[in-house]
Design brief:
Blueprint: H1 8-20, E1 24-31, E2 38-44, H2 55-71, H3 73-76, E3 82-86, H4 97-102, E4 107-112, E5 117-126, E6 129-134, E7 154-158, E8 162-167, H5 177-197
Parallel strand pairs: 2-3
Antiparallel strand pairs: 1-2, 4-5, 4-8, 5-6, 6-7
Length: 198
């Protein structure tokens, strides 16, 4: 079995290096084909952090990993390999609980098993429940839309019921975003404490 087939050493080494840069290894993708094999290490911030990955930090981690790969054939073998260290990007599908935790504060579009589609702000993950606030967006003139009458603003959706979800690009997040997240997390913590006491 080649080093490209068994990624154990690569994953262990990448995890150790990325940890020193405050990053986590999200996934490893290997693309073969007619030319030089390409190995993509997809990295992200830890799930308890908000915001975007600093590209300079990614570049530093990439340089360090490249040096290790060049020096140790056990990582990717002795044949030339193109190594790329990158972030998931905005088109990443949210599927694992950590993806939703990393998306706190972000606007997401998601569809549930019953076919209902939501456009909502991800606020917290409470156990296996997503805590969201529906946001109807803006009309073609840029004016805020209102939710249809009778629509519930706050949503609690079981993660298991979500069939697809992804982050939407947003240019004007709400000014009270930090407070929304803090309130949701406090509420989730309080509900968890009450449940444990019951």
């Amino acid at each position: 079995m080649s080093a490209l087939d068994d990624q154990t050493i690569l994953r262990e080494t990448a995890t150790r290096v990325l940890d020193t840069h405050g990053l986590v290894l999200e996934d490893v993708e290997i693309r073969g084909g007619g030319g030089m094999p390409q190995v993509r290490l997809i990295v992200d911030l830890p799930e308890d952090q908000l915001g975007s990955v600093d590209l300079e930090t990614v570049a530093e981690a990439s340089r360090e990993l490249s040096e290790l790969v060049d020096a140790d054939d056990a990582l990717l073998g002795s044949a030339p390999v193109l190594l790329e260290v990158t972030t998931p990007g905005v088109d990443r599908v949210l599927s694992a609980p950590r993806h939703f935790r990393r998306s706190r504060g972000r606007l997401v579009s998601l569809t549930t098993e019953d076919g209902t589609t939501y456009r909502a702000r991800m606020l917290a993950l409470e156990g296996d429940l997503l805590l969201l606030r529906q946001e109807p967006g803006r009309d073609d003139r840029g004016r805020p839309r209102k939710l249809p009458e009778g629509t519930v603003e706050q949503l609690r959706i079981p993660l298991a019921d979500v069939t697809t979800a992804k982050v939407e690009i947003e240019f004007d997040p709400p000014a009270d975003l930090a407070q929304l997240i803090a309130d949701a997390e406090t509420s989730a913590t309080n509900r968890t404490a009450v449940t444990k006491e019951s």
